[in-house]
Amino acid sequence: MKCKVCKEPAVVCLPSHNAAFCPGCYEKFYMKQVREGIRKRKLLNRDDKVLVALSGGKDSLSLMYALAELDYDVTGLHIDLGIPNSSEKARAVIEDFCSSRGFKLTVVEMEKEGMPMPLVKKHIRRPICSVCGKVKRHYFNRVALEQGFTALATGHNLDDEVARLFANTLRWDQAYLSDQGPVLPAENGFAKKVKPLYRLSEYENANFAFLQGIPYHHLPCPYSGGASFTAHKMLWRDLEFKSPGTKRSFYEGFLDRGAPAFASFHERKAEEVIACTDCGCPTSAGVCGVCRIKVQLDRALKDEGA
Amino acid sequence: MKCKVCKEPAVVCLPSHNAAFCPGCYEKFYMKQVREGIRKRKLLNRDDKVLVALSGGKDSLSLMYALAELDYDVTGLHIDLGIPNSSEKARAVIEDFCSSRGFKLTVVEMEKEGMPMPLVKKHIRRPICSVCGKVKRHYFNRVALEQGFTALATGHNLDDEVARLFANTLRWDQAYLSDQGPVLPAENGFAKKVKPLYRLSEYENANFAFLQGIPYHHLPCPYSGGASFTAHKMLWRDLEFKSPGTKRSFYEGFLDRGAPAFASFHERKAEEVIACTDCGCPTSAGVCGVCRIKVQLDRALKDEGA
């Protein structure tokens, strides 16, 4: 197989694009997907101050690398969850990555915030992945707003987006279908959120990270029994295998023709958002979910001490 | 396993309804699904004159039986396609079924209409299943309008509807999503179309036909290499197996929350329908697709004779 562009031996084969690439041309292809994805859906402006959420995995590190290459003003944000034998490794990967490339980095330590995940897991009787996601999104937004960032970028890839869209479509969830997309404008106390990798599959990101020599953290979280959406992702892997390009056309088709049909359901949801009486962050209840978790943790620790 | 209703031994097990039934209670369950389906989505009025499209398969014969049981004024319509070793068998099953139960029946013979399918297959360079479907829909509508019927009922089941909805959703086809549903009102030269079996799966219809002693034609058409939608139907079989009830909630969820979002795209499509200059039936071109096929056939036969 030869590179579609320069005819040198190819190393990456992409049936969905009916193409194969050598390492150099693959980097150009990847960067073009990010650049065009940002331009086509108006994700970022040239003067945006971008906070990039870094987990230490292939997607978030590739995102940071690509946005910096495209000359955006980027700062990394890592949430150190305080999980033994896991969090310190992810954090070290991110700190090395950022310092070696001169990237700015902010780290929020859940230990210092009084909410290390082992404590949350022990005392909060809800699925840990759901609580952890809530806490991370809370701090992403809070740091972005408090430190004056105009956009929060996350490494969600095409597979993440398709699995989520499919789940929302199976339920025909009007509110979720009204605001799924690679850009959510700033409103109601939320920073603008963007997903610049929405055109790139997990496989494409893994190849990019590997070929660019980005060392990433790839051990699964010890607390997740199995990744969410797994069954749907397998279903989509089969669909994509039989008809290459189906994932992309399903997702981009939704953005072009599905999302506009559900747009009117967005306003109704937005009206319900108010400020948390404790921390001021946006919530639908009086006290936000994260502040409520803090209260529950404090109570549990007091009971334990008593 | 015991019948959920009367505790006699069950013969049909339906995980999607978390229930099992004996033959007598299954008939009641089935009839209730048809009755409630008609009521909930306003498919038929008590004074509707209903033309029931009969292929001779389990779905269409079960539909005819159920609508007659529910005291609707029903007449069968069969299109005899003129396919050797197939059409005569289907027609005989339908004629026996209708005469033994005193049902009115109209048969349209494609041989007499100058369009037997073997001739169409030989001379029309398009997928035969697509052309045959077009011809059948044409005559369904034409007979309904010419003979004063107020509704045309077809035996589409939940699996048919889910496979079609899924294909339309994968493409986010706004026009098709705007008018998929168990009832299409009369408009623009089209009779009202209803699908009273939209809540019942293929499996549920097969069980009903079997338990009611309805002999049905179940050989596949010799012209169809493989049924359309097959890959999607298999995907949905797996989804349903893992989460019983997913098909029903996807389809009914669409009717409740998806279809309204796409409703505005229906008018735009409807505006484009005009009357065929040859036969007067509705079409988007000057001469309708079926009249164009007739012209092509006439030309091919003349060329052969020359």
Structure description:
- Two copies of one chain form a homodimer.
- By secondary structure, chain A is α/β, with parallel strands linked by helices.
- Chain A has one domain (38-218, 226-273): Rossmann fold, CATH 3.40.50.620.
- The first copy, chain A, has twelve helices and ten strands.
- Chain A has helices at residues 23-40, 58-69, 87-101, 117-123, 128-146, 158-170, 174-178, 202-211, 230-242, 246-262, 264-270, 289-305; strands spanning 12-14, 19-21, 49-53, 73-80, 104-109, 151-153, 183-184, 193-194, 274-275, 282-283.
- In chain A, the strands form three sheets. In chain A, strands 5-4-3-6-8-7 form a six-stranded mixed sheet, with helices on both faces. Chain A has a two-stranded antiparallel ribbon with strand order 1-2. A two-stranded antiparallel sheet of chain A has the order 9-10.
- In chain A, helix 1 (23-40) crosses helix 8 (202-211).
- The longest helix of chain A has 19 residues, at 128-146.
- Chain A is globular, with a radius of gyration of 20 Å.
- In chain A, 37% of the residues are buried.
